[in-house]
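Two proteins, back to back. First:
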Amino acid sequence: MAELTRGVRIGVDVGQVRVGVSRSDPDGILATPLVTLARDLTAAPDAVPSDLAELAALVAEHGAVEVVVGLPVNLAGRHGPAAVHVKAYADRLVDVIAPVPVTLTDERMSTVVASRRLAERGVRGKRQRAVVDQAAAVEILQSWLDAQRRRTQ
């Protein structure tokens, strides 16, 4: 199988209130936290919400070649209401950042894993809530990068 094309990837963890964002290095080896964006739920239906506009600016700023969005599949492997919500968000993102592709990836348990790792490092309470979305975005992107590398070996 072909190798992963070189370039920065942006990882996205879409929540109801916040959007966690991470980025990879150009070689696709390591995902690092970038920022947490507040969801803009007040934008007019025909307007681009500010969180999507900020994501588009980050894609441009980092010269991203792809955006990887975590799709919350439930433990039974089905798509529940949260997955429908994330798909709708990803569809709007596609329109805003075209021609940069948006890829959906299974993000089962990413927030749980991110919370556990932060707690192990002594980050708890309000400090954890402030960064857990970024940490979940790192988990999503790192898992995706690792899976791509396994496929090409």
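And the second protein:
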Amino acid sequence: MNTPKLPIFTNVLQVAVVVDDLYKAMKHYYEIYGIGPWKVYTFNSSTVSDMVIRDKSSNYSMKLSLCNIGNVQWELIQPLDEKSIYYEFLKEHGPGLHHVAFAVNDYDETVNYFRQNGIGVLQGGLWNNLQYTYLDTQSTMSAIAEIYQISKDFTWPEPEEVYPSK
């Protein structure tokens, strides 16, 4: 078995919260905590390819917003259908902290390591040359871990909108 260089996770990249109303949540974070501005994107089968849920091809959709707090990206996610792990989380727990995204030294090696240790992929996809993967680490980390593989030609697309608008 190929064991990745330890530590497996080398940096915290993102903290994500699942919400039932994206616009209400953005407003709350901005007005109460001064967190923002938020860049809004829609992820669905038109914007994301290679979508999987529990290692099986499956389309899902969500609307999300992103901003930075220092060096960490903060993400709010509203599921738009009943297929995703975000919807499952919202139904079971209500709005709340969903996952933490981590940097890794080698994406493929990390995914293989987790698979060989019985930890599969909960959900994933390819968005604008950024491969994102949620690992089923709840039983071993008490949280879902997300990792990325970002191609060298990745660029952030223009958001659909920014909140608050300028």
